[in-house]
Request: fold
Amino acid sequence: MIIRGDAITGPVRESTDVCIIGSGCGGGASAKILAQAGRRVIVLEEGGHFTSGDFDGTEETAYQKFYRERAGQATEDLAVTVLQGRCIGGSSTVNWCTTLRTPEWVLDAWARTYQVRDLGARELEPYFDRIELYLNAAPEPEENHSPNNRIILDGARSLGYRTKVNKRNVRGCVRAGACGLGCPFDAKLGVDRTYIPDASKAGAVFYANARAERIRARGPMKRVEGVILDERSQKARFEISIEAPVVIVSGSAIHSPVLLEKSGLANSSGQRGRNLTLHLTTAIVGLFDRVIYPGGGIPQSALCDQFLNANGDGGGFWIEAVPVYPALAGLSLPSFGEFHRAMMCLYPYLGASIVLVKETDSVGRVSLGRSGRPALSYRLGQRDRRVLQSGLETAARIHFAAGARKAMTLHAHPMQFASEEEISPALATARWGPNDLSLFSAHPLGTCRMGGDARSSVVDGHCQTHDVPGLFVIDGSVTPTSLGVNPQLTILAVAEKSAEWIAENFRSLTS
Amino acid sequence: MIRATVSTTRRRFLKQTTVGILALWGGGALTVLRARQQPPLAIPSGLTFFSGQEYAIVQSVARRLIGPDSRIGPEPGQADVALRADRFLSEADADVQEQFHQLLVVFNAPFFTFLFDFRLSSFLAMPPDQQDSYLHDWMTSTFSFRRTAFQALKRLCASMYYTDSVTWEDIEYTGMFLPGEPS
Reply:
C-alpha cells in the first residue's frame, strides 16, 4: 500500500517491526525482502508517488517533481551538480537503466583494505543473477543502439579500445529516450515498478511525502520522527512518528549521513559524512554531419572501460553515452550568447559522451548545512584531475574516430578541437578550478562506509551501524570506495543480502 | 597549469556579499539610485519573488546569455524567462532565495561593476556589447565566487528558457520519440 501525503488527515503514530527511510534501491529492496520474510514494514519516502501517467517526457515536469532540489542539488560552490531522484523508487525512477555488476577487483579491494567480509564476487554472484532476472536486465541487440551510443561503440572499437554493451532493466522498451524523465510507457523496471509493488503485496506500507527528521535510539526500540508534507507546497502538514526495533536508513549517500547527524548517531569513527565520492562526470560534445539527436533513442546502452583500473591503482575512467535534453544542453554547453546559441541550433547534430572518474584522491564530504539541508563539499584531487583530463582526451578521440567534425569540452570558456592533434595541447592549457568546467554526478557514494574496523567505518558488513544495534544504513552510502560502474545493481545486491541477514537475525536484534 | 581549487562555499559567498552590500549602502547610495532610475523592461504584474528591477536584470541577462534570435519575451510564443524564474525561485528554500537577491544586487549595482571591472554603470544601463563583455568577465574571473555567480545565472536562464516548449522548434528538438517513430 502506498499512502500519499494529501490522503493523510492528521498526525500519524505507528509501531512496526522495521521502519525504512527512503524508497530507492536500498530501501525498496530491503522492504521487499523483509516484508516477504513476514516482518511488518513501514517505509517513509520524502518525495511523491508518481506513475506512468505523471511522466510526460519533459524536463520541466521531471525536474520540478521527480528530482532532488528540482535537479539543482549541487556542491556548495555550485561546481558539481548532483542529480538524484526524489520520489517513490528514488533515483531508479529517473536513471538511465544501466545495470552493471560491481567489478571483482573493487570487491577484492573492499575485503583487502576495509576488511569487508562476505561481499566478494562469489558471495554476490547469486544476488546479481537473481536481480538481473527479476529486473529483466539484458544487453540490447546491435540494431537497438541509438546514434549517440554508436559513437562509443564505433569510435572506441576502431581505436582498439574495449567496449561493452550494458544490461538494461526494461521490458517492452519503445526507445523513446525518456528514461531520465520517468518512463511514460511502463517499460523501465525500476524499483517503483518491481520491488515496491511486491513489497506492498507482502504487506509493506509506504508513506509518500513523508520526511524523516530525526531518529531517537534509546534501548532496543527506536523512534523515527518526521513530517507529512503537502504535495504541492512541500510544507509540513502533520507529524509522523514510527516506533520500531529495526530502523534502516536508505536516504542516499547525501541524505543518510545528514539524518544521522541530525540525530546525533553513528559517528564514533568520525567517518559519518566523509569519504564522499561522486564518479565525477563531465562530457565531450561532438559535432557530426549526420543527425545524432542526443535526446532520443535508448539513452545509455554502451560503454568503453578500457581505462578503468588500467594500471591497477583502483582508479581511472570510463565513458558512456548521455541523453541530452534541451535544458541540460543549455546549461552545460560552453560560454553564452552567439557561440552558445549556434551550438544549441545544431542540437540534432550533437553527440555527447560522458567521462566518469573512479576517484582515488579527491576529497568529498556531506554535513548538515544551514536550514537543515545537506552541505556538500568536494575537492578534486591531483590524480583524479589528471584522470579527468585523460578521459576527455580519450572521449574526444573516440568522437573523431566516429566521424565528428569538431569536438568540445564543457569548459566555460569554449575549448574546441577541429582535429585529434589539437586535443592534448589544448587541454594542457585548460583551467580546472571550480566552475571552469561543467561537472556532474549521479552517483554519490561512500559517506557511511562499510568496514570491519569500527574505528574507521560507520557500518559493518551487514550494513548495521557499529554504534547502534538495530540501526542500519542500506544505500550508496555504504560503499567503501567508488565503484567504477553505475551503482544501482550493487546497491540492490547489498540491500537484498543485508535484508536477508536482518530477517534471519531479527529476534537477536530486538532482544 | 592547475589552478588552486579553493572553493567558495555558499556560506562564504553570503558573507562576502553581505560585506559588499554594507559597503554599497555606505558608499554607493547615489549610484544605486541612478541604477534604479534606468528605464527597465515592461514589468509584469503579479511577481512573487523578484522586484521589478530584479525582473529586468534577469530578463536582460537571459537575452545576452541565450543569444541572438531567441524567443525571450512576454508575448504568446515567447519564453518569459524572468517570469518563469520568478515562479521557480518563489518555491526555493529561504537561503537560496536570500542568496539570489544578493547576487542580483552585486551583479547589477554600479558600485560593484566599478569595483570588479572599473565600469561606471549598472549592468542594466550598459549597452549590449558591454553587457556581453561584463558577463564574460564574470564567467572567466579568477575570483571563484564570480564564476559561481555566473553559473548560477546561466543555469537559471538556460533551464527556464529551454524547458519551455515554445523554444524547441528553433533547435529542432521534437521531444521524446514516440512508439512507431524511427529511433
